[in-house]
Amino acid sequence: MKTLMRLFSIISFSLLISCNQGTENVPANNADTTATASIGGQEKVQDNDSQKDVVKVAVSSKDHTTLVAALQQAGLVTSLSNAGPFTVFAPTNEAFNKLPAGTVDGLMKDDKKEDLQDILQYHVFMSALSPESFTDGQTLGMVNGDNVTVTVKDGKTLLNNSAAIVTSIRASNGIIYVIDGVLLPPAKK
Amino acid sequence: MKKILLPFLSFSITLMLLNISGCKPKSAGDATGSDAASRVFVPPGKYDELYNFVSGGFSGQVSVYGIPSGRLLRVIPVFSVDPEKAWGYSEETKPMLNTSHGEVPWDDQHHLDLSQTNGEIDGRWLFANANNTPRVARIDLKTFRTAEIIEIPNSAGNHSSPFITENTEYVVAGTRFSVPLDDANGDVAIDSYKKNFKGTISFISVAPTNGEMKLAFQLSLPGMNFDLSHSGKGPSSGWFFFSCYNSEQAHTLLEVNASKRDKDYILAVNWKKAEEYVKAGKGRKQAVKYSHNVYNEGTHSATSTTETETTVIDVKDFPGIVYMIPCPKSPHGCDVDPSGEYIVGSGKLAALIPVFSFSKIQQAIASKTFDGDYEGIPVIKYEAALHGEVKKPGLGPLHTEFDGKGNGYTTFFISSEIVKWSLKDLKVLDRQPTYYSPGHLCIPGGDTRKPYGKYLIAYNKITKDRYLPTGPELAQSAQLFDISGDKMKLLADYPSIGEPHYAQAVPAALISKNSVKIFKLEDNKHPYVTMGEKNSKVVREGNKVHVYMTAMRSHFSPDNIEGVKMGDEVYFHLTNLEQDWDVPHGFGVKGNNNGELLIMPGETQTLKWVPDRVGMFPIYCTDFCSALHQEMSGYVRVSPKGSNVPITFSLGKNSDAIDSIIKK
To answer: Which pLDDT score, from 0 to 100, does residue B259 have?
Structure first.
């Protein structure tokens, strides 16, 4: 009985779709072919009027070329061009240079994409934290699932006791904190 | 098992049968050509070729569709309240619906006209009429928002409107219902129509730079019903043509009593001449009361001003302004071809379509080839004005548009079809059925000097079985035709908002290039703007509590408010601090006898709330703004009248207990 029912539903379904063959590739000769939405994610939206989002802010900074290249390699540009809101801790090129030689090059290899994603997502917090909202001993649950610990001492804000916040930049979909060190997620258990 | 299986089997078999028949070649039951699907298919991410602005009829709004896909892009609130967009609910927009009768929350929106320069669509503004409480609106096409609404005095039923002159010098408003003028005693016997009732045609000037409307002058005419109108163009540029019916001056059972005479009239109005008289100080200054409502983009607020004077020209005292041309059987549509030479009157009960010639009308006026007068207005001899008649075109002609290639396209309500005919020899070239009974039609640019052509959209009055049934009340139906070839080809059906009457369509680039993405926060001149979270506050002024609140992904500031008491009026002045395209924030309050707010980036809007009980009232963002949208909320505490709870407000000051749980 069950087999019979399945058979009938398969027949019905195949008949339903059988007439639709070929419609997907029909040229749309009436669409205004010059006017089109962007091909890709929200990072491709043509918009010179809005404030820059966190990705566009990073792209426009000459001190963050390594970060931008890493975001592109990790496929995170589309996500970070989304509505957010994000707090992005953005290590400078100099901060990346402080890593052991070959680390960045190694992470930029295709077979290390997941590791790179893990590290970069460890720099992103959901919600746009204002500079005043950091408190000593605060724990931030980052996008990759690990925590970052905040230390506030003598007017300085440190993350994981290693990277200091240098400055903050407001973006349309969040806030960027430029930091002088790369945050490395704890070793996975 | 059998009980379950049997209906399933029969359903499957029905599906199979349906599909087998569906695979057959297109039969007569499907009127579309084989390539119709590709002609209307706009692939994901591609834009439509044209914007189509469609009147909403009894919805009071204007809808915007993409052509050829028939995709609904937006509904613009104009004459009816719209709680979704806070139109008529926010403090800023309430004045837009003000009239001399007070707030009127609804209207019947019939016709649209896009602004023109040199007789061509310029993409700046869209004008819309309100038929019930006579008004004209101007919609700004940079923002797709209603920017201005002006009420028309001495009028009732603003049907013959809002058609514009070639350079948008004027928008016209001809009254459908003649009534005693506003300064005359209206408390008279209805059967004193002939004596006391007057028809008026209003000319509203449009400022060339900012579009601001002003009631320039009104023509006073004998009592009758003005129906539709269109401006002259090219050689007939200084003239305007109006159809009228009920020249019988009936005031009851019009369906019989206003159809007695063989002919009613097309009015030819020399508005340049009327303008000269007004400039020379002629006409009667009449005391009236009407509202003029303007939305200021700088303050994000509307103001309503009561105007008190109008200039009325009684046309029988000023010869040379108006002439009447006999037109068979209660003319409805009054359309002027792209050359400006031909005026088409569509008598809705006539068995032919008369086409009048502007040059012949001028000759008849010069040679005084008149057939007497109608209450002092010269009546031109029918034959003297006539270019010719389209013979046996169909039943119930209503409206005509033009393709710019020498053809007219007329809708026929009774025979439910569109008929294509030649302006030159008046021969019928093609006819196609519509489903069912079309009213207006729209050819992109079809009432301008330069029609875009290519498509024709019929707005049908009767839907019946065209779509899946939705009970007794059905959406109305639009039908898209391809008119690029000799024969019209039906491409698609799509449902429409309200009851579309007239519509306009224009190549997309003319409008899309000007579309505003955000309002600049630094330009925000709202008196209650909050420039940044740090400036947010709550201020008590007597029993009024003003909340200067900001919205930013993903919180309000403040989001905890205490000290509101019973008897207070709370005004939430929300500033959306976002400067990012398509990131509006919404705002709702539990139990508020009001709508929501929907605030665009950089804008300030105000929602009034009068708490009805003591308690705790959540507030929240109603527009999914971000990944933490669901967190965008807060509380307002309401205390009893006379309570000593002080006004306090905060953001992010959580109780220690909660912090300690988070810290662990």
So the answer is: 85
